[in-house]
Write a structure and sequence with these properties.
- The protein is built from 13 helices and ten strands.
- With about 350 residues, the protein is an alpha/beta fold.
- The chain has one domain: 3-Layer(aba) Sandwich (D-Maltodextrin-Binding Protein, domain 2).
- Strands 1, 2, 3, 4, 7, 8, 9 and 10 form an eight-stranded mixed beta sheet that branches. It has a two-stranded parallel ribbon with strand order 5-6.
- The longest helix has about 35 residues.
Length: about 350
C-alpha cells in the first residue's frame, strides 16, 4: 500500500512538473514572431518599394523581431482586387494599394477617383485630414485597418498620339480597371472608350494595341517604362493618385498592443516620407522622359475649362452611386473651405 502511494506520488509529481513546464513555455508560444505578408503593385526597387522595406526593417528592430514584414511587389500576388480577396481569406495580411483596391473594400474611396476634384497637394492633404476618421471607420466595419496613406503622385493621361482636348481623349482606347463595371459605364456614358484590363496587363495592352491611352503618374510611367509606348502626355493633371497601407483587422489584433504602437509609428514615418519624396520625383520623372522623347502637350485655357466641365459631370454621375453622398458632401465641403481660406484653387 505504501509502495502504491509512493508510486502514485511520483506519478503526480511528474505530471505537475510537465504542467509547469508547459506553463513556462506558453509566453514564448504566445510571442511567436508574426510575419506580415504584404502585396502591392509598386515596382521592385521603386521609391515606394524602398519605403515599404525600410518600414519593415523598422518593424523588426522596434519590436525586437516579434513582427516582421514580407513584401511581394510588382503585382506578383495579382491585381489589387485579387490582393484584397486574398486578405479576406487570410492568404495575405496586408497590402499597399491605390484607391482602386481601397474602393473594392468600400466605395467611399472613389471620392479620390473623381477627375480634377483636387487641384493641389495642400488641398488634398487638408481634405484628407478631415475625411480620415470617416474612412477609417468605414474600413474597420469591413474588417480592415488603415495604417497609413501612400501617395503616388499626380495622375496625367499618357497617349500614343498628341492630344490636348477632351474630344481627342474620347477617341482613344483608354485603360480602365477591370472588374469596375459601374465606372466603365460612367466613362461610356460620357462618350469615352474604356477598355477594362488588370493593371498588370497595361504593357501587354499597349504592345498589342488593345489600349493607346491610360492615366498614371509620371514617376510610374517612367519606372515601368510605359511612356515608351505612349510618348505623349496631356499637360493637365487629372487627380492625385491616393493609396493606403491596409492590414486585415484579424491580423492587426493578433499583434500585441505594445507592438501595434511601434508598427503604427513606423507607418506614420513612411507616410511623411512619401509626402515629400513622391511629388519631387514626379517632377524629375517628367524631365527624364522629355529627354528620352516624351512630348507634353499643352492644353489651352478653353480646353482646360472643358476638361473641368466634364470632370464636374463625373462627380455628379458618381454621387450616391459610386460614392456615398455623405462622403462626397463632406469632401466637397472641406475642399471648398480650404480653397476659401487660401484664395481659391490653383
Amino acid at each position: 500500500m505504501i509502495r502504491k502511494t509512493r508510486r502514485g506520488g511520483r506519478s503526480l509529481a511528474a505530471l505537475l512538473a510537465s504542467l509547469l513546464s508547459l506553463v513556462a513555455l506558453s509566453p514564448a508560444v504566445a510571442q511567436a514572431p508574426a510575419v506580415v505578408k504584404l502585396a502591392t503593385l509598386v515596382p521592385e526597387g521603386s521609391v515606394w518599394d524602398k519605403a515599404l522595406r525600410d518600414m519593415g526593417a523598422e518593424w523588426t528592430s522596434s519590436t525586437q523581431g516579434r513582427v516582421s514584414l514580407r513584401v511581394y511587389p510588382g503585382g506578383v500576388a495579382g491585381d489589387e482586387p485579387d490582393v484584397v480577396r486574398k486578405m479576406r481569406i487570410g492568404q495575405l495580411q496586408a497590402a499597399a494599394i491605390t484607391t482602386a483596391g481601397l474602393a473594392s473594400i468600400d466605395p467611399s474611396f472613389n471620392v479620390f477617383n473623381v477627375p480634377m476634384f483636387f487641384t493641389s497637394y495642400p488641398e488634398l492633404f487638408a481634405t484628407l485630414d478631415k475625411l480620415e476618421p470617416v474612412l477609417k471607420q468605414r474600413l474597420d466595419a469591413k474588417g480592415f485597418v488603415l495604417l497609413s496613406w501612400g501617395h503616388g503622385g499626380w495622375v496625367y493621361f499618357f497617349t500614343k498620339e498628341p492630344i490636348g482636348t477632351v474630344d481627342g481623349l474620347r477617341h482613344t482606347k483608354m485603360f480602365t480597371w477591370a472588374g469596375d463595371d459601374e465606372m466603365v459605364a460612367v466613362w461610356k456614358a460620357k462618350g469615352f472608350n474604356p477598355v477594362p484590363l488588370a493593371a498588370t496587363d497595361i504593357m501587354t495592352g499597349l504592345q498589342t494595341g488593345m489600349i493607346d491611352s491610360y492615366p498614371t503618374t509620371p514617376l510610374l510611367g517612367l519606372t515601368l517604362q510605359w511612356y515608351r509606348q505612349t510618348p505623349n502626355m496631356i499637360g493637365m493633371g487629372m487627380a492625385p493618385l491616393v493609396g493606403g497601407l491596409v492590414m486585415s483587422k484579424a491580423a492587426w489584433l493578433k499583434l500585441p498592443e505594445a507592438d501595434r504602437t511601434k508598427v503604427q509609428a513606423a507607418c506614420d514615418r513612411m507616410e511623411k516620407r512619401l509626402e515629400i519624396e513622391v511629388p519631387r520625383q514626379d517632377t524629375t520623372a517628367v524631365g527624364e522622359m522629355k529627354k528620352r522623347g516624351l512630348t507634353v502637350n499643352a492644353v489651352s485655357p478653353a480646353d482646360q475649362a472643358q476638361f473641368r466641365s466634364v470632370a464636374e459631370e463625373f462627380a455628379t454621375a458618381m454621387a450616391g452611386v459610386r460614392i456615398p453622398q455623405d462622403v462626397l458632401t463632406l469632401a466637397r465641403k472641406e475642399r471648398d473651405a480650404f480653397r476659401k481660406a487660401n484664395g481659391g484653387s490653383k
